[in-house]
Automatic annotation (TrEMBL):
The keyword Phosphoprotein does not apply. Pfam families: ABC_tran (PF00005). PROSITE patterns: ABC_TRANSPORTER_2. This is ABC transporter ATP-binding protein. Belongs to the ABC transporter superfamily.
């Protein structure tokens, strides 16, 4: 079974006369129970790929399907519905709402889906070491706390797929272990899928599959 299917993705950016080919024919499948780690040098296209898979950006070529439904080249409202139904998304650009507390951010998507689960949100925040920061606002968090709060906000509604960009950025080794455990349980304990861009050797060690992006292509392609 495939939860997410991306075929032959292209994404070009134009600034003045310059063209950056951020994605050049990337295909990918995400399956239940599989933790996939995404590696690549800065500028290789990792964030662009995650944004396209999340339906936050639209590829210029190729297509993406979530649970058999097409995500790419759809109106924003439909992409948002599919995103909420299937995905947990944690991106560097931030998926926290500034005027909501850490706890309310974690409850938001579940509430929109009609399955608000405060006990689960608190448990996840506790597991990543944020039990004392439930009522803080995003602007009051450190970089590492922001990444963990954003990860919990992506996971708390129980999505089938997690897409995450550097969830262990700026954290100490103990917190990195906690975040790795949380993602490992989500994928291997609950049979979900995850695609994680990370430089963490701890997280990479738990991966079922490691993919390398280089200059917008799979390195071995
Ligand atoms: N909005 C944009 N406009 C123009 N160029 C962009 C834009 N976003 C990304 N790029 C370019 O596309 C390429 C891929 O960028 P991307 O952010 O996907 O890389 P990355 O692998 O995530 O890098 P990092 O690890 O530094 O976050 C880079 O050359 C980047 O400069």
């Amino acid at each position: 079974m495939t939860l997410l299917n991306a075929t032959d993705l292209y994404r070009f950016y134009h600034v003045g006369d310059d063209e950056t080919r951020a994605l050049r024919g990337v295909s990918l499948e995400l399956r239940p129970g599989e933790l996939t780690v995404l590696l690549g040098a800065s500028g290789s296209g990792k964030s662009t790929l995650l944004a396209c898979l999340a339906g936050l950006d639209d590829p210029d070529g190729g297509w993406i399907a979530l649970g058999g439904e097409r995500l790419s080249r759809q109106p924003e409202a439909r992409r948002a519905r599919l995103r909420a139904a299937h995905l947990g998304v944690m991106l560097q650009s931030g998926n926290l709402i500034p005027h909501l507390s850490v706890l309310d951010n974690a409850l938001l998507t579940g509430a929109l889906l009609g399955r608000r689960d405060a006990a689960r949100a608190r448990e996840l925040l506790n597991r990543v070491g944020l039990a004392q920061r439930l009522h803080a606002y995003p602007s009051q968090l450190s970089g590492g706390e922001t990444a963990r709060a954003a990860l919990v906000a992506a996971l708390a509604h129980g999505p089938r797929i997690l897409l995450a960009d550097e969830p262990t950025a700026e954290v100490d080794a103990e917190t990195e272990d906690r975040v790795t455990e949380l993602i490992g349980d989500f994928v291997h304990g609950q049979g979900r899928a995850a695609l994680i861009a990370t430089h963490s050797p701890r997280l990479a060690a738990r991966a079922d599959r490691v993919l390398h992006l280089s200059d917008g292509r799979w390195a071995d392609a």
